[in-house]
């Protein structure tokens, strides 16, 4: 796998001129306000009977997301006295919450761990509100893309913020020590949540993030979801590209980053063909809070793999967000 982008010194200085929607803040305050107002019931936590995991308690969760609709999650609680620091994990593209046995790192390290399903992508959370004119190609990138109000990621990002809202109310969780976490799409969602949830997020772990600097991704990504934009615009020749990228401006990590103030640890693979390094650095370089980035020189879209998790545990401990000491 060759290098896919700029040299590292250029990436560290990369700050493209970008046009932010004038009503970005109003759009999101209205979106989240409506979702919270639509909530009729609190999150439900159902113990999983016959769980094979003896060191953690496993709960099948439904919390209210977009329009109050139920979103599935797993909550894994270590058998330890609380209140516990917590990690909220968002999923990669086309992935759901899977099985609890797939998500043992954070609870083994002593964190409460909420593993959030992605509406329409996982098997447990449907997306009953597709756009009224749902023209899309392949996956989810172009679903409702001609309207910010109807775009798929408006619903998914709202779910992600509401996951933090739900977890803050759990009696076993320290509401002041909630970390958002994810890789690829999950990394982009963690970044968006850090920008939207304010002081409710204590730290963000943003691995090889997708959903950043969409136009650059469309221009140079050779694999993954960004080429869906190219395919869509190639097929729908009468759709103005400015309209498409205008919609995407409401959901771009480069615009959430200046609004995020929690400490953040990013990661990037310099040989990543899915989320080109310049798209990652475009967001990282605009991030407003304390920040650091782990650069994996020979990393592809898997980034640093398990080595990044070790780095994250040490980084959190160094900021008073560990589970020992």
From TrEMBL:
<dbReference type="Pfam" id="PF05448">
    <property type="entry name" value="AXE1"/>
</dbReference>
<dbReference type="GO" id="GO:0052689">
    <property type="term" value="F:carboxylic ester hydrolase activity"/>
</dbReference>
<protein>
    <submittedName>
        <fullName>Acetylxylan esterase</fullName>
    </submittedName>
</protein>
<dbReference type="InterPro" id="IPR029058">
    <property type="entry name" value="AB_hydrolase_fold"/>
</dbReference>
<feature type="domain" description="Acetyl xylan esterase">
    <location>
        <begin position="1"/>
        <end position="317"/>
    </location>
</feature>
<dbReference type="InterPro" id="IPR008391">
    <property type="entry name" value="AXE1_dom"/>
</dbReference>
<feature type="active site" description="Charge relay system">
    <location>
        <position position="301"/>
    </location>
</feature>
<feature type="active site" description="Nucleophile">
    <location>
        <position position="184"/>
    </location>
</feature>
<dbReference type="GO" id="GO:0005976">
    <property type="term" value="P:polysaccharide metabolic process"/>
</dbReference>
<feature type="binding site">
    <location>
        <position position="93"/>
    </location>
    <ligand>
        <name>substrate</name>
    </ligand>
</feature>
<dbReference type="InterPro" id="IPR039069">
    <property type="entry name" value="CE7"/>
</dbReference>
<feature type="active site" description="Charge relay system">
    <location>
        <position position="272"/>
    </location>
</feature>
């Amino acid at each position: 796998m060759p290098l896919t982008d700029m040299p590292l010194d250029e990436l560290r200085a990369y700050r493209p001129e970008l046009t932010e929607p004038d009503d970005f803040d109003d759009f999101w305050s209205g979106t989240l306000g409506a979702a919270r107002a639509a909530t009729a019931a609190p999150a439900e936590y159902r113990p999983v009977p016959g769980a094979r995991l003896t060191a953690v308690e496993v709960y099948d969760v439904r919390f209210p997301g977009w329009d109050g609709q139920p979103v599935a999650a797993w909550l894994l609680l270590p058998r330890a006295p609380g209140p516990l620091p917590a990690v909220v994990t968002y999923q990669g593209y086309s992935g759901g919450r899977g099985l609890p046995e797939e998500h043992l790192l954070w609870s083994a390290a002593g964190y409460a761990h909420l593993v959030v399903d992605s509406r329409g992508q996982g098997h447990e959370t449907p997306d009953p509100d597709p756009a009224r004119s749902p023209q899309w190609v392949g996956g989810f990138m172009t679903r409702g893309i001609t309207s910010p109000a109807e775009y798929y990621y408006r619903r998914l990002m709202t779910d992600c913020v509401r996951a933090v809202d739900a977890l803050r109310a759990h009696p076993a969780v320290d509401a002041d020590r909630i970390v958002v976490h994810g890789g690829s799409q999950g990394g982009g969602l963690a970044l968006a949540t850090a920008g939207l949830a304010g002081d409710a997020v204590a730290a963000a772990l943003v691995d090889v993030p997708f959903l950043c600097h969409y136009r650059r991704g469309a221009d140079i990504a050779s694999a993954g979801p960004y080429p869906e934009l190219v395919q869509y615009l190639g097929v729908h020749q009468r759709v103005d590209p400015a309209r498409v990228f205008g919609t995407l401006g409401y959901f771009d990590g480069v615009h959430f980053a200046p609004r995020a103030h929690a400490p953040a640890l990013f990661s990037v693979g310099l040989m990543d063909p899915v989320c080109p390094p310049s798209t990652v650095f475009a967001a990282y370089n605009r991030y407003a809070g304390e920040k650091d980035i782990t650069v994996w020189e020979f990393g592809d879209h898997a980034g640093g793999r398990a080595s990044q998790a070790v780095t994250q545990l040490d980084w959190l401990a160094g900021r008073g967000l560990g589970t020992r000491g």
